[in-house]
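Same chain as my last thread, 250 residues:
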Amino acid sequence: MSRKALIAANWKMYKTPAEAKAFVDAFLPLVAGHDRDDIALFPSVTSLATVVEAVKGSKVAAGLQNMHFAEEGAYTGETSAVMLKAVGATHTLIGHSERRQYFNETDEVVNKKLHTALKHGIVPVVCIGELLHDREAGLTADVLVRQLKGALAGVTAEAAHSLVIAYEPCWAIGTGKTATPKMAVEAHAIVRAELANLLGAEVAKATRILYGGSVKPENAKDLCCEEEIDGALVGGASLKPDSFAAIVKY
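reply #2:
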């Protein structure tokens, strides 16, 4: 089964609405006619509506970096799935390592968010990955399996058709360090095998698994040309139109 790659830009806490609009205006001509991969931009909540409007008529999707699991309620500062859909967003990141590290998001919280995203027809990009001490202790597989089991608890194969997993080794995020293609492929194979255990072989074969962690124009081709790697979740290198376009067109 052929999996169409997804190249996603996580802008984190960067870009005002005006800066986001300027990015899209410069970026779209650079990727015009690019059909090999799906492309998604993940701006901050204040720029989301601007990006949704700016990408209209293109094949570029827009999503948010985080989403609450509740439909609505007294959750100051949070954004619901209904709000995302109301402004035209189609994707959301769930469980990014920075959410886990700085905002204490647990596998249980990730699971609740995933169920909500799937319920509302939002494409969920679920982020998993090990810390440096986990890798050095030989615990990478243990961490990935635990996070997947936690994230996918109660999720059925039928509901998981839009699921995307992003493997992001935490030690490679914003550090300039990158997992070698061999390291990334080994981790992706672990993820796919566990997806098969949890959701069945058919879903595992169809699910896109992205690599995230210091992806740059210089290493995108080596990573994304690996059969097990179905695209990239790009941080710092996605902030400039020419840099992100170079990654998309590796």
